[in-house]
Amino acid sequence: MGSREYSPDxxxxxxxxxxxxxxxxxxxxxxTAHTPRDQALRRDLLPVPAPLADLLPDGGLPKGAVVAxxxxxxxxxxxxxxxxxAGGHAVVVGLPRLGLLAAAEMxxxxxxxxxxxxxxxxxxxVAAVLLDGLDLVVLGLDGRxxxxxxxxxxxxxxxxxxxxxxxxxxxWTDPALRLDSRVTGYRGLGAGRGRLRSVCxxxxxxxxxxxxxxxRMDLCALADRTEWRTRETATRATEVTALREAVS
Length: 248
Hints:
Layout: H1 8-22, E1 45-46, H2 50-53, E2 61-62, E3 66-70, H3 73-85, E4 90-93, H4 100-105, E5 113-116, H5 123-130, E6 136-140, H6 148-161, E7 164-168, E8 177-189, E9 194-207, E10 213-221, E11 226-230, H7 231-247
Parallel strand pairs: 3-7, 3-8, 4-5, 4-6, 6-7
Antiparallel strand pairs: 1-2, 8-9, 9-10, 10-11
Helix pairs in contact: 1-5
């Protein structure tokens, strides 16, 4: 991940990031004087989309933990929407293609979400700075491998700050959780025609203790929003919608 020796350019970059972070509302603050928190965050957990909560050992992402993520960006977006929609504050580092419109349609409060698409050559250092003031830091490594010693340092920092670090697209040693998702299909598309109604995901959750858990969930497009549903619930809802459209 590069040398940690003193560099004037590196110090200027970090100073700039600290100033940008200071402009983002911190934990416990409103984004504006008129934006109340929707609900209090639990002391030990961050909220997640409901179908994912059923797979996690404690029903949410543990605060102060490192989570290794691989797979579809849609579930990462769902995590950001769940946290900011519940009054938390989050940042995305090094994932320029993560869709803010999709996050808003899932219920994200964009005033509580910061984005640093190009963190420079050392994104882990940027994430370390941002752990000081936010509930959730999503870090894209773009295929990089973080040395084990540095993983331990950042994990300790996240634990001490009570912030959750989600690491995507790289190699991380000994995370508290591993989340893997893959797109398995789509609903609503016909042969050259039709409207996309849902994206189907298979999700695997692995913790340090206990067996891995598997689940299936759909991201469903509604009239004015998108919504996460378990596969069985989504299937029934899709059938009802198709029936209504057929008789209308």
